[in-house]
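Changelog note: in this version the structure field was regenerated for every chain. One regenerated record is shown below for reference.
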Amino acid sequence: MSRFLRNNGWVTGLFALLILLFIATKIIQPSYGQGDFTSLVRAVLPYAFAVAAQTVVVIAGGIDLSVAAMMALTSVTAASMMAGASEEYALFVVPFVLAMGLVLGAINGILIVVSRVPDIVVTLATLFILQGAALLVLDAPGGGAAEWLRGLILGTLPIPGLPESITGWIPNALVLLVVALCTVWIPLRRSRLGLSIYAIGSSDLAAFRSGVPVARTKIIAYALAGLFGAMGGLSLTMSTGIGAPIPGPYLLASVAAVVLGGVALGGGRGGLLGPIVAVFVLRLVRTDLTLLAIDPNVTAIVEGSIMVAVVMFGAYITMRSRSS
């Protein structure tokens, strides 16, 4: 146990902070219960997928500014395709949208590798392209979603033999998040590709000299980011039942959660669990501010200040590690 705590001290600290925040939430609102937790998880869902997308890219030594726009485009694409369609048609829409995100992410990687332009510049350009494409698909919120698809994130998971008091704390949205992330991340983390992603994040020159295909690995990292972004777009459509063409506040939130989750902005260090816990921490802070009846404008300022401070701290740590 002591060895586990040493190796995962940062994530353990985040879990402790999350528990303290839940206790504070219960003190602020004693009636906080299963329904409120379920709503929290549904609100976290798109942020978590955005963070997963950003985490893969940052570990590979890059950054993706187009995550939120990718989510908007995939969301409106799914919503427009499912509008007025049969329930069974969604079985085709879901893999199509996921493949679309994978391809768009790979295009990001190819542009970065071929042009040798910094990641931040390329993804800033694709941000505007994807945002414009989303508005072409739907110029206003609309579309639809299959009821069975929406049902995947509504309610709680019924487990035979367990009382409602326990299963009520296992939202379907949380189960979907865990299954989706683990399906991609665990095989990736244990594969040679995963090691290559960490290697190019630590030093692409050293990775190249060790025989790692740097260009191909970077393209795949961005492709996986696109896949997670598409999952986030689908989760938006599933949550609201419509598609929204305007990107939400997922970009800065994803970077802040990545840094708060212990991933080095310089790449090569970190994992996925920490950033996902950090998302819950950041969203629960917002929930507590709302429960305290803080002015929404002040809440936005506080939330934004926390995110900026976290990102600046991460950048400072990265600069110190590079200088040493």
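Spot check on this record: The chain has a mean pLDDT of 88. The chain is about 75% helix and 0% strand.
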